[in-house]
Design goal:
By secondary structure, this protein is α/β, with parallel strands linked by helices. The chain is built from 9 helices and 10 strands. About 30% of the residues lie in helices and about 25% in strands. Strands 6-7-8-3-9-10 form a 6-stranded mixed beta sheet, with helices on both faces.
Length: about 270
Amino acid sequence: MVTALSRIPAPPPAPAGKSIEIAAVSHRFDLEGKPLPVLDNVSFSVAPGSFTALLGPSGCGKSTLLRLIAGLDHPAGGAIRVGGQEVGDPDPSRILVFQDPTLFPWRTVRANVALGLEAQGTLRSEGHRVDAAIAQVGLSGFDKAYPHQLSGGMAQRVALARALVNRPNLLLLDEPLGKLDSLTRLAMQAELVRLWQDTGLTAVLVTHDVEEALFLAERVLVFGPRPARIVADLEVGLPYPRHRGDPRLAVLRREALGHLGLEASW
């Protein structure tokens, strides 16, 4: 018997990710006693479980902002909050994945992925999480391989597994596909979308690749030259999976290039 109650769909699970609030954040570096401004009064918020791309020219301050969110540096002005709590020191709940996988060459895939649990002293009791993370990135059967036996894309999958094993709330991606060949990069872009959808994490991607930003993210924040300021906030508004030939992506690409001062190249 079907009752009225049984016809009500179950609510979707709450996102595993947390919100991010960037409130009037400014930052600078001191070079030989002279200040070098890199961020200028940047403010925006990110919803839990969303995928946001930070797009802009090289050296404009995008990676600096990602490091501030991770807690690796502290802003000179303003505040950064994750889940309503001000960011302090680095924490396993906020994982930063770099362009270089930075794997230890003398450790196997499994040993590289296990580093976070080793550091926390929980590997003995939580070792199953290592195998789960390796499977999640599609590397089952390669757990005993060494980094020199892996392709570039496989090495970056290991870096992602090393991040996911910590069960983070935020996945912060600093040009993670920048060193891959074009075909591997396209395949890994699809993998990043899958991982984000499977985990419900809040993802923030830094890139200067317009197509990558629009293909991956729900929202693209476009930054101008250093010191970084947001010059456009683009809602992509397209369902997944996305197709690179979609004419709506072409329209968004042209708009983003215009905000970057590159409309003449289109």
